[in-house]
Specification:
Blueprint: E1 2-6, H1 12-21, E2 25-29, H2 33-41, E3 45-46, H3 50-55, E4 59-62, H4 67-75, E5 89-92, H5 98-109, E6 114-117, E7 120-121, H6 123-129, E8 132-137, H7 140-150, E9 154-161, H8 165-193, H9 198-205, H10 213-223, H11 234-251, H12 256-273, H13 281-289
Parallel strand pairs: 1-2, 1-4, 2-3, 4-5, 5-6, 8-9
Antiparallel strand pairs: 7-8
Helix pairs in contact: 1-6, 8-10, 8-11, 8-12, 8-13, 11-12
């Protein structure tokens, strides 16, 4: 199938490569010419114009830093909307604000272009192996048409509701991840300050009721190993927690725990750690505690 990818960063580049490996004819666009060149060398078709890319593909996937950039890419001068034909589909994999998503979708619908929001969870390694979890918002019939593409990059493709629901669920999923990383970091650092061996404490947590993906996967692979390999950054996690907080404030939902979690992630960004992997929030906690959590 012919499909285009706009945004070739950590996730977008890997999604494009995965689709090529699965036999799709992939067109690519990015403001970074080097990123385009690398994908072209692997067999993709590079485009210098969003309008041209939109005109030549029935399915266009955007994987961009935020919703405001998606709006510019779609509706800017010579943007995707100037080229996309009636019946074509925009699939936004960006971690975005639901309100922006519905705004874009409504505007595109006036010219007969369909839209799904399909943010992902799983990180760069699962993007490479096609094992992402994809939470999809939008019309079920549109999802049925895009399903063959999504299932080539996602092990779990879950329809979560109307347009915007995908971005809602993504933000809330990341709020939970941010919370478990924060509290596991604080508990582990406290244990170390109390003289407990960090590995022994983690062993107990991971067979007890305190276990989570943060303790079972992220701590062994990144924190205890001290690798902190960049996949999804502190800055991006902070952005997603902020989206969740905006939704909570707009709907008057309680945020006792969420507010405290958000303050820690904002502090991490303010400390200059925004470009580090999100697991490096443990380093921020360690610095405040005056300890090191390691095996």
């Amino acid at each position: 199938m012919k499909v285009a990818i706009v945004g070739l960063g950590n996730m977008g580049g890997r999604v494009a490569k995965r689709l090529m490996e699965q036999g799709h004819d992939v067109g690519v666009y990015d403001s970074d010419a080097g990123a385009v060149t690398r994908l072209v060398a692997l067999g993709a078709t590079g485009y210098r114009s969003l309008k041209a890319l939109g005109a030549e593909h029935s399915f266009v996937i955007t994987v961009l830093p935020n919703g405001d950039i998606v709006k510019k890419v779609v509706f800017g001068e010579q943007g995707l909307a100037t080229g996309m034909r009636e019946g074509s589909t925009l699939v936004d994999m960006t971690s975005s604000v639901p309100a922006i998503t519905t705004e874009i979708g409504l505007a595109l619908s006036r010219q007969g272009v369909r839209m799904l929001d399909a943010p992902v969870s799983g990180g760069v390694k699962k993007a490479e192996t096609g094992q992402l979890t994809i939470m999809v918002g939008g019309d079920a019939a549109v999802l049925a048409d895009a399903d063959v593409i999504l299932r080539d990059v996602g092990e779990h493709v879950i329809h979560v509701g109307d347009l915007g629901a995908g971005h809602t669920v993504k933000a809330l999923n990341n709020l939970i991840t941010a919370t478990t990383l924060a509290i596991t970091s604080e508990a582990m650092s406290l244990g170390v300050k109390m003289g407990v061996n960090a590995q022994k404490m983690l062993d107990v947590i991971n067979v007890g009721s305190g276990r989570s993906v943060s303790s079972e996967v992220k701590f062994p692979q990144q924190v205890m190993s001290r690798k902190f390999e960049v996949g999804f950054t502190i800055g991006l996690m902070c952005k997603d927690v902020g989206i969740a907080m905006e939704m909570a404030h707009r709907t008057c939902a309680p945020t006792f725990v969420s507010s405290a979690v958000y303050e820690l992630w904002k502090y991490g960004v303010a400390k200059g750690c925004g470009g580090m992997d999100h697991t490096a929030i443990a380093l921020v906690v360690e610095e405040m505690a005056g300890v090191e959590i390691k095996g």
